[in-house]
Amino acid sequence: MLGAIVFTYGMLMSFVLQGASRNARLKRPNPPMLQYVGYVLCGLSTGLSGMLLLMAFTAKAPFPLV
What gap in Å lies between CA 46 and CA 28, rounded to an integer? Predict the structure, then answer.
């Protein structure tokens, strides 16, 4: 199940980045749906990386790290 989620996330992210870069190259504004999906994916990336960082600092290691 995780593989399908990661695949879908990767496809959406590549579509959004490709569309945004093409619009920037042609000097056109981004469609609202593309911008909203980009914001959602950016928020998911930031939230997940923050949770993983918090988990890395608070998880108990099997051996002392310090």
Answer: 27
Token pair recorded at residue 66: 């310090």
Euclidean distance between CA atoms 39 and 19, whole angstroms: 14
Question: DSSP H helical segments within the chain, as ranges?
Answer: 2-25, 32-58
Q: What does the CA dihedral 60, 63, 65, 66 come to, rounded to 10 degrees?
A: 110
Quote the longest CA-to-CA distance of the chain: 55
Q: What is the CA radius of gyration of the chain?
A: 17
pLDDT tens track for 6-64: 999 999 999 999 999 999 999 999 999 999 999 999 999 999 999 999 988 888 877 77
